[in-house]
């Protein structure tokens, strides 16, 4: 199926106009375009480009056919959370009141609240699925290793901790 991929924001500099590809899903169309255009290659400073696909709010939507045969790629902002705007506004208001009233501690408090709001916007959002069950009996810094995690191999001598690759025991209390 023919799919037109439209690039928005600074992605539009990578290729003029829409790109037509043969793809059965949105993910396939995105993969075809991002692998072919040199502008999508990872940058040494910024790393990989963060992409938002318009109309795809979750992963399942990426593996469906494109709506109306169109896919719109938009650059994603690198900030973490959507919160922090109220904190920024409160900080600016306190700085303004402290400036006009000549109250020093309001200036300081407003500046700190403002900087706290900025840092809250830039911090990455915590994963909701990060419910790691830790054991109090195992001494490793992290008790489990997810499937697909690379395990480093050390050559030479060094003081390191370990990972338990498999530790499958169940405790059943009866009676």
What does this structure look like?
This protein is an alpha+beta fold and about 180 residues long. The protein has helices at about 25-35, 60, 85-100, 105-120; strands at about 1-5, 20, 50-55, 70-75. Strands 2-1-4-3 form a four-stranded mixed beta sheet, with helices on one face. Helix 3 runs antiparallel to helix 4. The longest helix has 19 residues, at about 105-120. It is extended.
Please provide a brief summary of the model.
The chain has 175 residues and is an alpha+beta fold.
Secondary structure layout:
Elements: E1 2-7, E2 19-22, H1 26-36, E3 51-53, H2 59-62, E4 70-75, H3 85-101, H4 104-122
Parallel strand pairs: 1-4
Antiparallel strand pairs: 1-2, 3-4
Number of strands: 4
Helical residue percent band? 25-40%
What overall form do the CA principal axes indicate? extended
Total number of helical segments? 4
* Helix-strand pattern: EEHEHEHH
Q: Largest sheet, described in full?
A: 4 strands, mixed
Residue windows where pLDDT falls under 50 for at least 5 positions: none
Oligomer: single chain
Side by side, the strands of the main sheet go 2-1-4-3
Keyphrases for this structure?
alpha+beta; four-stranded mixed beta sheet
């Amino acid at each position: 199926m023919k799919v037109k991929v439209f690039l928005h924001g600074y992605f539009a500099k990578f290729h003029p106009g829409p790109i037509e590809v043969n793809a059965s899903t949105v993910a396939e169309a995105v993969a075809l375009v991002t692998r072919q255009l040199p502008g999508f290659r990872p940058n040494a400073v910024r790393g990989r480009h963060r992409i938002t696909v318009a109309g795809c709010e979750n992963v399942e939507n990426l593996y469906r056919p494109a709506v109306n045969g169109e896919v719109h790629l938009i650059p994603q902002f690198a900030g973490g959370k959507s919160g922090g705007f109220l904190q920024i506004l409160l900080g600016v208001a306190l700085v303004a009141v402290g400036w006009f009233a000549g109250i020093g501690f309001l200036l300081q408090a407003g500046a700190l609240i403002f900087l706290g709001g900025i840092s809250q916007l830039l911090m990455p959002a915590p994963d909701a699925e990060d419910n790691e069950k830790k054991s109090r009996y195992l001494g490793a810094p992290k008790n489990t290793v997810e499937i697909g995690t690379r395990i480093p191999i050390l050559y030479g001598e060094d003081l390191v901790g370990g990972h338990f690759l498999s530790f499958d025991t169940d405790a059943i209390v009866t009676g």
